[in-house]
Design a protein that fits this description.
By secondary structure, the chain is α/β, with parallel strands linked by helices. It has a single domain, classed as Rossmann fold. It is 34% helix and 25% strand. The protein has six helices and eight strands. Strands 1, 2, 3, 4, 5, 6, 7 and 8 form an eight-stranded mixed sheet that branches. The longest helix is centred in the N-terminal third of the chain and has 27 residues. The radius of gyration is 16 Å and the shape is globular.
């Protein structure tokens, strides 16, 4: 059913991990992701609202879509102390509750890995952005070496999506954004967390794209 998506165990684990992730560097990535945004912004997969404190004053309104009920309630609480007006609503990335061309920017932070249909989600983001609107994204992506990519493929076919709320480790999200009709700006590629033994989710991209 569009608008709902319940992963109660994963949602509670993720909400508890979010503060530790921010202390380990996620907060800095969120600030860089949101820097320069302005006007009316749609955030897809808002989770517990970890992005909200980092929106710049140039943003006039945020509509935050979150399908998971527990995370959505946490996001509503976080919205009360956000530095910009934030409204949290139910919805899924494949069925966004928004009119065509109604937003100046859209934000995806660690969410395009877990949407059931990434192509449909990006088509919806393209639809709701005005011409020239900006999509800002921070995602973990497919590894750049064949061996690590094969490990990701095995995990994605077996246990990982079931354990991690539908997450896939090996999606080539930057290529998918370009294929959906966006013009990519330079994309920053990095490893996070930068541990000695790379995790399957450690290859990341952070960047933006313009609705062509």
């Amino acid at each position: 059913m569009p608008g709902t998506c319940s992963h109660p165990v994963f949602a509670r684990v993720y909400a508890r991990l979010a503060p530790a992730m921010d202390r380990a560097g996620a907060a800095g990535h969120r600030r860089r992701l949101l820097a320069g945004l302005s006007g009316r912004v749609l955030e897809v997969g808002a989770g517990s609202g970890a992005d909200f404190p980092h929106y710049p004053a140039t943003v006039t309104e945020v509509v935050a879509v979150e399908p998971e009920p527990h995370l959505r309630e946490l996001a509503r609480r976080a919205a009360a102390s956000a530095p910009v007006p934030v409204t949290v609503v139910a919805g899924t990335a494949e069925h966004l509750p928004a009119a065509d061309g109604s937003f100046d920017a859209a934000v995806c932070a660690l969410v395009l890995c877990s949407v059931p249909d990434q192509g449909a989600a990006l088509a919806e983001l393209h639809r709701v952005l005005r011409p020239g609107g900006r999509l800002a994204f921070w995602e973990h992506v497919r590894a750049g070496t064949p061996g690590r990519a094969r490990v990701q493929d095995v995990l994605d076919r077996t246990v990982w999506p079931r354990l991690a709320g539908g997450c896939h480790t090996g999606r080539d999200t930057a290529a998918a954004v370009a294929a959906a009709g966006f013009r990519l700006a330079p994309v920053e590629r990095f490893r996070w967390p930068d541990t000695r033994l790379p995790a399957p989710t450690s290859p990341h991209v952070l960047g933006s794209a313009v609705r062509a």
